[in-house]
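$ ./design --mode recover --in tokens.txt
reading tokens...
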């Protein structure tokens, strides 16, 4: 019989002091930052106004998306109703989308525009996410991302077809790519390896957050499993005949803790012991650990990976056990986001039309950093991944509070504003040769495309 300890203290409540300092310092940096010199829309006023009006007219559809997805959250690779909802909204507006695109049942793809005079024009992709987290639902706000992507795509329909008052259609295409399984599974990398971005020149998306931010740090992330194998023995009669796999896991866990002192400030390692034996009377034969490793740059993530390999091998050596190291076990790696400043400037200009003023890079502390599989896209083609406010600044992603905000009163206005921003950014990229040159020159200057599938080999 289990008897609660009446004298046991509840779990300690963490102090908010550090976060309080971070938020105060971010506000001080925001106030001290000089106004960024961003040119207004590069498009003719009539065109930009027409796109903005089209996005605003889609507000009922975007509300439907935000609310339906929020009420029926589906985790990675199970987003059947969510994907069907988005395809249904597109069909209602006369746009046919391919469900099950690139061999992924819950992915979809739709296209607008084409080449001018039979020649090749540029292609820009708008990425839409719609998977949720288990248990707590849309605590990362992907329902807002989906609405923004669909809204931007449909807002561009008339101008890309040459209809209405927007004048001659620009060369090129806009692809709306429904990208499932961002949470923990790197769905965009799955799609990329199936060719989803092979004919794409640039890619853009937006993510909900606690503030409007033009550029924020997103860490690369790898998944890792360590399986330690020892020899069982009776823990009392002959313990010396055993080799304890749980001891190896314990040493490895402590090794990670000691490693942290020598890690760069924004590196992260999280670990759990998911198997640790069956009976106290038996020396544990098998122990399994699962870990996440994160870092700010691709090469520092590769360095961190090598150091973790050493930790596991050292623990095995000290305990006389064997270790199996399985990197990217169950999910492909995610790289950090390489933000393209030339694209992001156009986003800022569009958001200022909507009364928002996204914070520049460096205002929000880089220690508040998560991961996204859009990083893999951004090392293939130029990309941007700004943030739009749907909650108070102190509400963290992946919490019940943020899930509530993703279905709250700020969610639909954020989706509409984001649809305007994505649509205008995409259209400026297609229409302005100088902007495209600046975008691609910057991408090359930062190293150009990376061979993502082979990077960690």
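writing sequence...
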């Amino acid at each position: 019989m289990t008897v609660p300890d009446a004298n046991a203290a509840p779990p300690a409540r963490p102090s908010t002091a550090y976060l309080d300092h971070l938020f105060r310092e971010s506000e001080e940096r925001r106030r001290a930052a000089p106004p960024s010199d961003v040119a207004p829309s590069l498009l003719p006023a009539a065109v930009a106004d027409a796109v903005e009006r089209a996005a605003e007219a889609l507000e009922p559809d975007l509300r439907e998306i935000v609310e339906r997805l929020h009420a029926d959250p589906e985790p990675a690779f199970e987003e059947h109703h969510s994907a069907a909802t988005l395809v249904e909204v597109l069909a209602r507006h006369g746009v046919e989308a391919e469900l099950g695109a690139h061999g992924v049942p819950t992915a979809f793809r739709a296209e607008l525009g084409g080449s001018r005079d039979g020649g090749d024009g540029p292609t820009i992709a708008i990425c839409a996410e719609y998977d949720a987290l288990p248990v707590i639902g849309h605590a990362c706000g992907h329902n807002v991302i989906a609405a923004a992507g669909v809204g931007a795509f449909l807002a561009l329909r008339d101008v890309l077809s040459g209809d209405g008052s927007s004048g001659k259609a620009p060369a090129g295409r806009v692809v709306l790519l429904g990208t499932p399984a961002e949470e923990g599974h790197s769905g965009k990398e799955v799609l990329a390896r199936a060719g989803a971005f092979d004919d794409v020149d640039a890619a853009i998306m937006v993510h909900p957050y606690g503030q409007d931010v033009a550029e924020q740090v997103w860490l690369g992330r790898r998944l890792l499993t360590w399986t330690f194998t020892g020899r069982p023995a009776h823990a009392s009669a002959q313990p010396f005949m055993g080799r304890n796999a749980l001891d190896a896991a314990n040493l490895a866990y402590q090794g990670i803790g000691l490693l942290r002192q020598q890690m760069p400030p924004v590196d992260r390692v999280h670990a759990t012991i998911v198997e640790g034996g069956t009976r106290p009377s038996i020396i544990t034969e098998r122990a399994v650990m699962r870990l996440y490793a994160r870092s700010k740059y691709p090469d520092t993530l590769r360095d961190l990976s090598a150091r973790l390999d050493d930790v596991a091998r050292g623990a095995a050596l000290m305990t006389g056990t064997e270790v199996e190291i399985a990197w990217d076990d169950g999910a492909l790696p995610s790289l950090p986001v390489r933000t393209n400043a030339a694209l992001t400037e156009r986003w800022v200009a569009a958001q200022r039309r909507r009364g928002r003023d996204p914070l520049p890079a460096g205002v929000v502390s880089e220690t508040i950093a998560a991961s996204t599989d859009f990083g893999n896209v951004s090392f293939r083609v130029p990309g941007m991944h700004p943030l739009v406010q749907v909650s108070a600044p102190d509400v963290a992603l992946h919490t019940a509070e943020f899930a509530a905000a993703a279905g709250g009163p700020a969610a639909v206005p954020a989706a509409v504003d984001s649809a305007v921003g994505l649509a205008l950014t995409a259209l400026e990229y297609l229409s302005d040769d100088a902007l495209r040159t600046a975008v691609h020159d910057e991408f090359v200057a930062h190293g150009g495309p990376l061979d993502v599938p082979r990077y960690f080999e």
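exit 0
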